[in-house]
Write a structure and sequence with these properties.
The chain has seven helices and 15 strands. It is of the alpha+beta class and about 325 residues long. The strands form three sheets. An eight-stranded mixed β-sheet has the order 4-3-5-6-7-8-9-10, sandwiched between helices. Strands 12-11-13-15-14 form a five-stranded mixed β-sheet, sandwiched between helices. It has a two-stranded antiparallel ribbon with strand order 1-2. The structure holds 2,5-anhydro-1,6-di-O-phosphono-D-mannitol and magnesium ion (MG). The site of 2,5-anhydro-1,6-di-O-phosphono-D-mannitol has 12 residues, from strand 5.
Length: about 325
Amino acid sequence: MSISTERWSISEFMESTWSGDAELEGLDAVIRAIADGTRRVHDLVQAAALADVLGTTGETNVQGETVQKLDVAGSDIFVEVLSKSGWVAAVVSEEVEDPVVSGDSAEQNFIVYTDPVDGSSNIDVAVTIGSIFGIWRKDPGGTISETLLRPDREQVAAAYVVYGSSTVLVTATRGGVNGFTLDTGSSEFILTHPDIRFPEKCQYYSVNEGNFRKLDGPTQRAVTRLRDSLSLRYVGSLVADFHRNLLKGGIFLYPGELERPNGKLRLMYEANPLGFVAEQAGGAAYSATQPILDIHPENPHQRTPLILGNKAEVEQTVAIMQGG
Ligand code: AHM
Ligand code: MG
C-alpha cells in the first residue's frame, strides 16, 4: 500500500484505508475515542506538576502496586471516552479491578483492554511514558462477561501512545502498523510513520540488568549473549522501549524470575497489544515457551514473561532460554 504522508490526519487515513472492511467496522470510532483521550492525557503529561498529577494517591491497585495520580486520571479519561464512543461494550483498565461495562447494544461490540499510563515510575521525573490498548470483538453469541477473555489471536487491532519529545499514536490492524504524531497547533494526529516494519538489523537490547541475578541459568545465558553483541537501551517504560526498538531494531525482555516465574508485565493490556503490533510489523512476541498471541487468557490481570522485538533475535533468545 502506498500512502502519501502529506498532512493526512488520522481520520482521513482511517476513512481511506479502513472503510469497506467489514472486520474493521466501527474501529474508527474506537480509535477516534483513543485519540481524544490521548489529547487530554498529553495535556496532563505536559502540565505535570502544574496540573497536580504527580505523586501517588496513597492507594494500591489490583496488582498491589502503588497508584500514581496520573494513573487514575489517565484511566478515568480513557474509560470515559471509550465508553461514550458508542462502539465499546466494556473496558478493562489496569487500574480498575472489574471490567467497566458501558452497554450491550448491537453496535457496542468491542472490548478494549488498556494500560492507561504505562511506565508509572517515570511519571514524576519527566521521562517518556505511554498508553496501551488491545481491541477485541465481543462474541455475538455470549454475554459480555463470558466473552471478556478472548483468545489472543482474535485481537482485531491494537494501539499505543508514546508521550515523549513528541506524542505519537501508533495503530495496528492486520492491514499494517502506522504512526501519527500529535500536531499540538491543530490538535490533529498526522500520519508521520506509514507502514512501520521492524528493521532487519537488531541494534539494541532492553532488559532490567539489575535483575540479572534473579534469572535462571538459561535466561542468564540468553541475556549474556545479547549483552555481548548489542547496545543496551532501557527506559523502564515498556512503550518507550518498544517504540525505539520497533523503529531502530531491537529486542525487549522482561523474563520470568526464579521467585517470580511470570515476570512483571500483564498479558492482556501490555504483552498482547504490543505482541500484536510486533507481529503485524514483522517482529515476534513470546512468553518463555510460546508466542504471546497463542496464550489463552484465564484472568484479565494475569502476568506473563515477555520477549518482544526483532523476529530472528526473539526466536534465538527464546531457544536459549529453553535450554537450546
Ligand atoms: P506499570 O504499568 O505499573 O508502569 O509497570 C510496567 C512497567 C513497564 O512499563 C516497564 O517495562 C517495567 O514496568 C519496568 O519495570 P522495572 O522497573 O522492574 O524494570
Ligand atoms: Mg501501567
